[in-house]
Amino acid sequence: MPLSVDNEYAVPTTVGGSVVESAVSSWPAVTYEDRRWVTSFARGEVSGRQWIQMQQPYAAAVTPEVADRKVSINSQLLADAEEASVLLSRFDSRAGATVLPFESILLRSESASSSQIENLTSSARAVAEAELGERDHGNAALIVRNVRALSAALELADELSDETIVAMQAALLAESAPEKTGEYRVEQVWIGGNAVSPHRADFIPPVAERVPSAMHDLLGFARRTDVPVIAHVAIAHAQFETIHPFLDGNGRTGRALVQSLLRRRGTTLNVAVPVSAGLLHDLDAYFAALTAYRAGDIEPIVTVFVDAAGEAVRNGNLLFDDIRTIREEYDAALSGLRSDAAARRVAGVAFEHPVVNVVLLQQHLGIADQTAYRAIDTLVERGILTPARPGRRNRSWAASDITDALDRFAARAGRREGVRAGR
């Protein structure tokens, strides 16, 4: 027998001595408004069918206000969400306690997974080379920019505002598409369909003039502390993706917001737990949950984030074990060297930057050119580094064991084929 819930948490109670399931309160569905489409195409530039279609109104979403909305989920999902939150906190504590630069390793892994959801894939070695400036274009460079967006999200977690959300997106696109940064969008966007008009789109977010007020409402929700953490980040993310406040980068910025909220709520204090790798594990469920959210059902998106948290921790722990094993192997390979030897220090930098060059080592360690080269020679001789781009003027060296571990992490995330991204 269902019962109503009077607070933000759906708590099981007893009837006749038996625990009963709490009812799920209704979450407001997205509504739609007809809007007139103004095209920039001339009659002869599109097909006759498209021209006729563009003369008709299109249905743009109107997002409901959620800032003060009661959040109710069934008792089992609530318990699962609380367990997922604990798992994330424990993993964060474990990662934070290590002497290895696991923060950088996980930040790069989360960035790569979030980018892969948008069909942007690259090897760990290519990403590391892009960080050195050796790859200015392509997916690797885009993933590096996503690292900056995630870093901004974590740094600005305590200051959630329109300005900080805009700053997160700017960190992502300022180099590749600066004209799309600096403010919320002032044009209509849509998901799916074609580039001619929104009439055949899978989903049409709110018109541009509704975005500022919708984001103001979302930020009010994001600042709350009375919603279970996993439900909080899941709903905030789904609402962000529904508003789609930017011309580009909404998916990656919305997942950066997840990291910001986890940090803001104190669930993570040390690292960016790779939640996107968990989402990547079942993109069908992720996109279906976003659709269900827009229809007024919050439980699928909360469930997706519960499952993603579990997958993130499982995969992250395997990566942690891989990196720790590599560190032990490096220590064994460097036996006989002083603890402050330059080669040991360079090997330590490789965990944070698995492709290195002399300039980077000078910046991080403050050592002279010749000292850096001698340290690199020692690491090459002992099998830790290999020439990344032999024969090039700007030489670099790779810690292949580390990039291989990162690639195994990406492979375990196991993106399923045949799924449309970008939602």
TrEMBL record:
Location of the Fido domain: 160-307
KW Metal-binding (keyword) present: no
GO molecular function: ATP binding
Pfam families, per database record: Fic
SUPFAM superfamilies found in the cross-reference section: Fic-like
InterPro entries: Fido, Fido-like_dom_sf, Fido_containing
Protein name per UniProt: Fic family protein
Protein source organism: Humibacter ginsenosidimutans
